């Protein structure tokens, strides 16, 4: 499925689709490396789009589409967050909330997809800690910068 | 296959059901080694009794003297007949009367005296003296049986001609271990050096050979001294030609596999453990290394999500195209993996064994989440760092 189609068919975020990485703030955009930026098929600020509907939930930040074929786009679900051990459970909660919100909606059909936690300020979660393993165990990747590929 | 020990040494209660690969973790002196030696006794009892008799040891039918010989000097007290804390051993669902069992082992026929378990002890570095494996009789009566037994096996293998080819090379050696395994071990442990047989008259010794230099045993690195007996043990388990398994051997125990090794070398040895699984051995490891449990966690996750077996190759950072590695990977995803934690009972010196096979880093049970204490320290450091860092909001955070 194509990213723009999936977003357009997902009512709550349909009007939030932006070109390229325009949905991301400038600071966040600096943490994304896209050697082939023309492959970016759009972006959505999920957090802002759903703020009024879900004010009390731990909302996820962004979704970004990336061209892989004429039929499918790869989806990057990106959360910008400080990477310390005391924040691990919150980010995992956010991911679970995102999955629960997406469930049954067209945006849930995007494949392949990656859930990425970006911490531009540095990563303070030891690789050998159970918290770090818990991040991976929940299908999340933790990086300082995200290379779209 | 299940072994239960109660009130044996520091083990209050230990119940372990073995998988194809079983990993035991726990602090020092928590009973892992005693547990493994009792497992060896149940599997290889007739061979052990025959060996001890062959080398002239006599325990006069007394269990305590036997335990001193088998487990090592001073170990007679691990087994107790005290009414309220009597030692119990259950093997394959049957209560074992240890004294009677030893008598029966002594009456076993020669076929039953064949060894079924290859035991690589934690003290394996003691098996080499000046670069050559020591004979059984070189050890003292009070040394744990598994040490001279291992050493003797290495000695016999060397005397029978390992390294006796034209190049005198013991490692690397074509036909011994798969080429990717050899490469991994070379990169992690040998760094281009080869292990060679050096003959001087009737004297033989193992040396490390570099370009224009020959390094004898005493100048090997600590890690190489620890690793080479293990390598020789792995050679014994992985015979050349097309023989999958050695003789009657079904079980392999490797105590503290990581001893003296850098994590890269631990990865290479864990890859070799997967080769042992491919060959049909049932493997039991004891370890203090989270890397070993990392491998188990990865394998269990691949199984849980029915992921591509080639992910096993990815775990070790190897190339997917190698057909031998793919065989190892394919076999690995069909094996059963278990992990157990030898946990100290608060306020006592006793230990109980907990099943932490789930290895879920987010488990409610902290013993499982921390993998039996192996990642607890890193987690705690992370919490202190978090406290310091969380004073300021990171740049760019929403």
Structural features, described:
The complex is a heterodimer of chains A (149) and B (398). Chain A is α/β, with parallel strands linked by helices and 149 residues long. Chain A has one domain. In chain A, 25% of the residues lie in helices and 26% in strands. Chain A has 5 helices and 9 strands. In chain A, the strands form 3 sheets. Chain A has a 5-stranded mixed beta sheet with strand order 2-3-4-6-8. Chain A has a two-stranded parallel sheet with strand order 1-9. In chain A, a hairpin with a 5-residue loop joins strand 3 (62-67) and strand 4. Chain A starts with a helix and ends with a strand. By secondary structure, chain B is of the alpha/beta class. Chain B has 2 domains: 2-359, Rossmann fold (3-Layer(aba) Sandwich); 360-391, no CATH class. Helices cover 37% and strands 20% of the residues of chain B. Chain B is built from 12 helices and 16 strands. In chain B, strands 5-4-1-2-16-15-3-14-13-6 form a 10-stranded mixed beta sheet, with helices on both faces. In chain B, strands 9-10-11-12 form a 4-stranded antiparallel beta sheet. Chain B is globular and about 65 Å long. At the A-B interface, strand 5 and helix 5 of A face helix 8 and helix 12 of B.
